[in-house]
Amino acid sequence: MDSAQIVIFVFVTKVIDNMGKGTHFFGQPVYGQLIKCLNKDKIVEMSRNHGGERYIKSFDGWHHLLTMLYAVILRFDSLREIEASMLAEVRKLGHIGLKTIPRRSTLSDANARRSEKFFEDVYRDLYDANRETLSSDSRSNGTEEWIKRLRIIDSTTISLFSNLIFKGVGRHPKTGRKKGGIKVHTVISANENVPCDVRFTSAATNDSFMLAPSMYSNGEIVAMDRAYINYEKFEEMTERNVVYVTKLKKNLVYEVLEDCMDMDPSGRMRYREQVVVFRKGEIRHIARIVTYVDIKKGKQPRLIQLLTNDFDMPLEDIVLIYRRRWQIESLFKQIKQNFPLRYFYGESGNAIKIQIWVTLIANLLMTLLQQKLKRRWSFSGLATMVRIVLMYYINLDSFLEKPDEDMKRMLAEASESPPEDT
User: Fold this and answer.
1) Is 141 within 8 Å of 191 (Cβ atoms)?
2) At 27, phi and psi to the nearest 5?
3) Are 317 and 338 in contact (CB under 8 A)?
4) Sign of torsion, CA 345 348 354 355?
């Protein structure tokens, strides 16, 4: 916890300790309010469908999910921290339906035994139930005509302690030892900003594994980086009327069919448009290359070349679509900065995947909370505040809408003259 978070923690703690029941008091801890959209019976049934309820006495799928969510939101690094914290909050956790506080061994065994597919089902069910809410926030999603059709695809690699579970790439620069890594392949809809599809592979797997043309519908647009270039798949996407926009690799061989340039009044190039054909074996793929000058403050201008199979969209839109790729990079950064993915609560592949799925569930719950609030919160600021007040009995919505009201009241009380001695 850095100095800024310590200041926030001290202030918020003082605010809550000093406010009366009439201010933000609520009969359920913040954690219970955060997970109220989760259906216990449905979740236990999902676990049962994956064989997770066999020979279980008390630590069922519901208890497992809530325990892992509690640990991920509070950014615990070990099973020991989880057990100690939950024992300290045992009365409050009972108010949200947690009747069993697991020992370290119980949680470790559950992470190894209960299928990660159960947690995947929970994430997908929560996502499907809230798609309309996620796509309705025009404040952050944008208003371009094509925004609802845009899918963004990329992957991020999470380093692991061992190369035995998931094969890594590269070696440690000092020791020369290989580290393991799990690659999280992700697709997001640009107007939702949370993963709509996730797949796991070892870090050594090529990104193009995730580019499956059959996954996309007629008229959709897919933005990706150049690691996904595959002529056969690009041609299939063209046949399916799926548009792709990616960055051109420097070493690609192609034949130029048409070439034109858009100049500004001073004679400098704005855009260059080329129609080209790529050949590989029996594959013949016709595409458009869009070249533009990328100008960033404090940096030298540079030429960027984009590749697309769309010949009708304005050049400006092609550039804007590719620039939208920042969304998925920002999402990866957001998840890694606000949730614990450096330390894992188990050493098996199943345990690692469970923790990633629970992290995605926590991210989705925070995103839904962020979009529901009228007050603008940064994701990291909201996650920090929720982490601080997670087990307080306050109305989360009213507190987050007007957190400064209590500060003003406390400052007003502090400015009053102390009573005279009698």
Assistant:
1) yes
2) -80, 5
3) no
4) positive
* Phi–psi pair at 315, nearest 5 degrees: -60, -35
Contact predicate 183/203, CB 8 Å: yes
Q: How far is CA 208 from CA 46, 136, 154, 185, 201, in A?
A: 31, 31, 10, 10, 12
Going by the DSSP 8-state scheme, the letter that residue 421 receives in this structure is P
User: What is the distance between the alpha carbons of residues 61 and 44, in angstroms, rounded to a whole number?
Assistant: 5
Judge whether 252 and 278 are in contact, CB under 8 Å. yes
418 Cα distance to chain centroid:
50
What's the pLDDT tens digit per position in 300-345?
Answer: 888 999 999 999 999 999 999 999 999 999 999 999 999 988 889 9
DSSP symbols for 119-154: HHHHHHHHHHHTHHHHHT-HHHH---TTGGGEEEEE
Tokens of 210: 């995730």
Question: What is the DSSP secondary structure assignment for residue 282, as one 8-state letter?
Answer: T
d(CA 101, CA 18): 30
Question: For residue 224, which of 307, 280, 333 has the smallest C-alpha distance?
Answer: 307
Are 14 and 409 contacting, i.e. CB atoms less than 8 angstroms apart?
A: no
Q: What are phi and psi of 49, to 5 degrees?
A: -65, -25
**DSSP helix/strand/coil, 100:** coil
As given in the structure block, the two tokens for residue 243 are 């548009």
Task: Judge whether 246 and 224 are in contact, CB under 8 Å.
Answer: yes
Query: Rounded to an integer, what distance in angstroms lies between the CA atom of residue 333 and that of residue 271?
Result: 31
Distance CA 358, CA 265 (A): 55
* Residue that the structure tokens 């991210």 belong to: 363
**Helix or strand or coil: residue 398?**
helix
> Residue 385: what residue type?
M
Residue-wise pLDDT for 130-175, tens only, equals 998 898 765 566 678 899 999 999 999 888 754 444 554 444 444 5
For residue 342, the number of C-alpha atoms closer than 13 Å in the C-beta half-sphere is: 6
> For residue 304, which phi and psi values (nearest 5 degrees)?
-115, 130
Q: What whole-number distance in Å separates Cα of residue 233 and Cα of residue 113?
A: 37
CA angle (253, 258, 261) in 5-degree steps: 105
Supply 413's token pair: 């009380």
